[in-house]
Design goal:
- This protein is of the alpha+beta class.
- The protein is built from three helices and four strands, in the order E-E-H-H-H-E-E.
- It has a four-stranded antiparallel β-sheet with strand order 1-2-3-4, with helices on one face.
- It is elongated.
- The two termini are about 15 Å apart.
Length: about 110
């Protein structure tokens, strides 16, 4: 089963240019988790990922990480998701908008499995 968390907004330091290191910017994070089917059978929260807690953990991790590159930010998110014992695979997409003139956004996507 796949569980998607879409549109996690995080204001954090991201970027390598000197001006980017002095102000926060908004990232949008989307996550696709591969989990077991148990929750679809039991309808119990204990049989799935606590996505409220995971969302806050993702936000906190990116705030602390102060990544220069969105590629590393995506890896931070993916690794955090895989730390949950109920997750067997994860895909993280990190989108940074408005950093460069004439470019709406840039995104990094990473997939990993246990």
């Amino acid at each position: 089963m796949k569980l998607e968390l879409n549109g996690i907004d995080v204001d954090c330091f991201i970027g390598e240019r000197p001006d980017e290191r002095t102000r926060t910017q908004r990232l949008r994070v989307d996550v696709v988790l591969t989990i077991g089917d148990r929750a679809s059978e039991t309808d119990e929260r204990s049989d799935t990922v606590d996505y409220a807690a995971l969302t806050e953990s993702i936000r906190a991790a990116l705030i602390v990480a102060k990544c220069k590159m969105i590629e590393l930010a995506a890896k931070v998110v993916c690794d955090l998701c895989l730390a949950d014992t109920k997750v067997s695979a994860a895909k993280a997409r990190v989108v940074k908008s408005g950093a460069i003139a004439h470019l709406e956004s840039a995104a990094a996507v990473i997939e990993a499995a246990k």
